[in-house]
Design a protein that fits this description.
By secondary structure, the chain is mostly helical. 85% of the residues lie in helices and 0% in strands. It has 13 helices and no strands. α3 packs across α9 and α10 runs antiparallel to α11. It is globular, with a radius of gyration of 27 Å.
Length: 379
């Protein structure tokens, strides 16, 4: 036992020295490391995008394979099952995209147009009203004078800030042809993955058996299953939740006679893809849209949204999404903020499942270490 420990110490020392050297090199040449990382990411981006597309399509494909005569032994059905299910999965995504582009996006655009058209007048009216009563509040008149901006200028600045946050440092215009080519390559790569997923699983299993111990391999597979479950449950749950919440909002607004029911319902359904705060963002947009037409109905709309959120949070969300996220609210907000800063809208949507996966894996590792040390994991 002592000899084994003595042999392990030099290996640990070498690993520590190598790790320290790598960290020092990264610190000393940080800008160069960032540039090389970006260049490497750009090279592998089509493959990573293809893997993500394959993951999403596989969720649909697995469902279709359970419906496409699963018990049949007919050679034609067995031979065409994978191809037909892949085609059906792609057609499903195309129909969803068509639905978004045909129905939701025009409504969202119409909402933005209405807000941008009505906000300047509302802002100027509020500013005029404040100036009338500025004498009663010390210092308010000086602050109003310091603004020196009308409603149109405020609106333009707000839209510019949102554009910078939503699309990050990447140019929105970009190279359209390059993006189309990248997407086509990613789609082709994803189709290859789906057709060869069983063979890929066997080959990677051989690779891991050759270079990983049984214990590490089993832990790695367990972590992969957890990651896959978190991402698939999150994607399915959030899409269902957004569709249900947007539909209920539009129907409820139509019943109670609120203006712009379809537009606001579409916006809330779209923003509900962002956990926790998404529906409130959509509600704020709806409030600004309705308050331009009728301030009283705008206040009633807030009451309606609060009631709808209570019903959704206590009855619908636990049934549809359940505990798929498993992430405390503070970390959800942190994941949304960090993801949005790094990757814009894509980071907002993907930041939460990534953070949830890390949170669960880290929690399991911490509990396992505490149990091995004889400490309670319930602290």
């Amino acid at each position: 036992m002592i000899d084994r420990l003595d042999k392990a110490k030099p290996k640990q020392t070498i690993k520590l020295i190598v790790l320290t050297g790598i960290v020092l090199l990264i610190i000393l040449y940080f800008p160069e490391v960032i540039d090389k990382t970006k260049a490497l990411f750009a090279i592998f981006y089509p493959l990573l995008l293809g893997a993500l597309i394959a993951f999403i399509l596989n969720i649909l494909m697995s469902g279709y394979e359970k419906l496409y005569f699963p018990a049949s032994k007919n050679r034609i059905i067995v031979g065409t099952r994978r191809g037909m299910c892949v085609v059906l999965s792609i057609l499903t995504i195309v129909l969803i995209v068509y639905f978004v582009l045909r129905i939701i996006i025009p409504q969202v655009g119409h909402t933005i147009h209405l807000i941008s058209a009505g906000f300047p007048d509302m802002y100027n009216n509020v500013l005029t009203w404040l100036k009338q009563y500025s004498d009663e509040i010390p210092g308010l008149q000086q602050r109003l004078a310091a603004l020196n901006m009308d409603g149109a200028a405020i609106m333009q600045k707000g839209l510019a800030l949102f554009g910078n946050w939503a699309f990050g440092t990447a140019s929105f215009i970009g190279s359209v042809f390059s993006k189309i080519v990248t997407f086509i390559l990613a789609l082709i790569f994803s189709i290859y993955i789906l057709f060869e997923k069983e063979n890929l699983k066997i080959r990677f299993n051989k690779l891991f058996m050759a270079y990983m111990s049984k214990e590490r391999r089993e832990k790695f597979y367990k972590d992969l299953r957890l990651t896959s479950r978190v991402f698939s449950d999150y994607i399915i749950g959030q899409c269902k939740e957004a569709l249900i919440l947007g539909g209920l909002c539009a129907i409820g607004m139509w019943i109670f006679g609120f203006p712009y029911a379809l537009s606001v319902g579409s916006v809330i359904g779209l923003t509900a893809l962002i956990p926790i705060i998404g529906a409130y963002i959509g509600a704020a947009i709806g409030f600004f849209l309705i308050v331009i037409v009728d301030p009283v109905k705008a206040l009633l709309f807030i009451v309606f949204i609060v009631v709808l959120q209570q019903i959704e949070g206590n009855l619908i969300y636990p049934k549809v999404v359940g505990n798929s996220i498993g992430l405390p609210g503070i970390w959800v907000l942190a994941a949304i903020t960090i993801g949005g800063g790094l990757m814009g809208i894509a980071g907002v949507l993907l930041g939460v499942p990534v953070a949830a996966t890390i949170y669960k894996l880290l929690g399991q590792d911490v509990n396992a270490r505490l149990n091995r040390s004889g400490l309670s994991s319930d602290i």
